[in-house]
Specification:
It is built from 16 helices and 35 strands. The protein is α/β, with parallel strands linked by helices and 554 residues long. β16 and β17 (232-235) form a beta hairpin.
Amino acid sequence: MKIVIIGGVAGGASAAARLRRLDENAEIVIIERSGYISYANCGLPYYLSGTIEEKESLILQTPESFKDRFNIDVRVKEEVIEIDRNNKCVKIHQIESDSIYEESYDKLVLSMGAAAIRPPFPGIDDPRIMTLKTVEDTFRIYEAVKKNVRNAVVIGGGFIGLEVAENFMETGIDTTMIQLDPQILPQIDYDMAAELHCYLREKGLKLRLNTAVTGFIPNETKVEIILNDNTSLSADLIVMAIGVKPESKIAGDCGIKLNNKGAIIVNEFMQTNDPDVYGVGDAVETYRNIDKARVNVALAGPANKQGRIAANHIAGRQTPYGGAQASSIIKLFDMTAASTGLTEAAAEQTNIPYDKVVIYPANHATYYPGAVNMTMKILFHKEKGTILGAQITGFDGVDKRIDVLATAIRAGMTAGDLTDLDLAYAPPYGSAKDPVNMAGYVIENVLNGTVEQYHWKEIPSLYEDDNVQFLDVRTPMEYDAGHFKNTIHIPLDELRDNLHRLDKNKTLYVNCHTGLRSYIACRILVQHGFKAKNLSGGFRFASFLLEEYICGGN
């Protein structure tokens, strides 16, 4: 059997290696347009700052090493320009010699990936306006940086844009980020991104949100960037990182079915509508495992899994793909942001009845030196209690908690299951009640009615309700540093002696710094005949989002 794979990197290289392990006699050919067959594309931005020092570190496999180890014919700097499904062959353009030849196949794997988007703005063809998608792109940007770049603009606040911006700043380049949306990182919700905005600005990133680029005016020394508010910026170097689009034209041209965004539609075995043609990686549409919605997830983990699934099926093994969960993580200087499963924005587009909790636990025992807190937002099914999604931002311990929660989502675990997890504990690493356990306890309290909660989005409308009374149970020092307007202040430890100051005819909306003390306050109040609700995430979380409702001390 002869298998031709169009494209290497994660999906194609994974499929090829797996095929060889399953079938020593198969003829396997990889056609790769770039000069590199298997490289660490997620590590490319870190070469710009010297965090990754050697070029060779980015290259995972070469054509020669693939041939030596796997006996796979790898052809780089060649591009498939046409697929003939009737005759089961592909037409290939050899880029360096500018010649064309044909190659037959029994099975074809499409792993073309996705291309960086470059809108047709005026002036965008200037060589100082670059994208980062391949090893060659990385080296071009690196060489440009060496030529005395003092200021740069990164357009787009996703993974690549943020990583490029960070690495520019690590080299001392004055960096501005322009983002069309009101937040960076669409993989998390706006309220979780708000703290990141503050942190990145503190680190020196000039962050322009809700801002669109309309064109460029190059001159001899700079490129002027024209913005939608009739202002402009100038830069020595610009990196466009506004997203990617599936590389699927040749697939569509030969009758392979695409979705309305150009992604290749595949089944659970990664087969297209042609059973002898498979699709893997950034160019394909699969499904989300939580709600079965059709999605295109451009991440390395799913691409590797899909390559393996396609190889298994070609070799006669029926192992279906389990769907995408879009687990992701990013380093932002010393901070980390991670997510898995549904965001709140995604959940709102489904028919799933959901709720969420926000907690602020320490990464390990607080009495052990170095403890730092993380913000955790967990979505859950309001009726079943199953975990639907999680987002975490913080400085240490984020990675292992998001992985536990990703596993919980995949396993269909409930809040009660989280409380029962027996996780490793020692003071330098965690707490006897791990943050994941604590998330389970908080969700259980909401589900069983032990506490009612409210969220920051409700606060503006609450100020218009005469039947509402706000109560802050923090210490005087905390309260004086900033509090919600028109709030009664009674520290938690003084609450029982001051119940007479509260109105039983009104609903008490209680807050503390993180939501823990106000939960205790709600339990006291409810058992004394009051109706009370706890602010999920506390004053700290809401303060990033509701500045107009906050004032200083009396």
